[in-house]
Design brief:
The chain is mainly α. Helices cover 53% and strands 6% of the residues. Strands 1-3-2 form a three-stranded antiparallel sheet. The chain is elongated.
Length: 158
Amino acid sequence: MSKIKSIDTPLSEITLRRYEKPYNLKRRDLVRKLTLGMGLLNPGDSRDVIVDILCILLDARKNKIKLSSETIRGKVIEFRKEHKLDYNGTASSNIRRQLKRLRELFLVEKVKNDYIITEFDTCLSTFEDKIERYLIPSIIERLKNYMKEVDREFGENE
């Protein structure tokens, strides 16, 4: 008889953190705080190439430029060289993995084989439309389903 294994892979997830108000931060530090606040980067992480990827895509948004993952990789290496940062995380496979994470939070979308900031729109608009109105309510609703089921299973007042 074979056992059925429970898969604990979430259908969707989001981590939100609150930091001090953005004040007098350099561009990279501002994007770093954004990625920390959205759970794309963890406090103390030294592998922060996702920050550079997002910076590059935000710069490309101004001129509505689509970038391939290899172009992004080249620009990330340039960017890290300019800022005197190490090259940890600049392998093509990692760049694609980080782009996937940005796509999962709807900040970036793939158009054919190129990447753009979602609809070349603002980060705030994308956050409000995709995360605040769609992702968070669906996660909350599912958690409520689990809470109701737990209460039913264990008895409401025990």
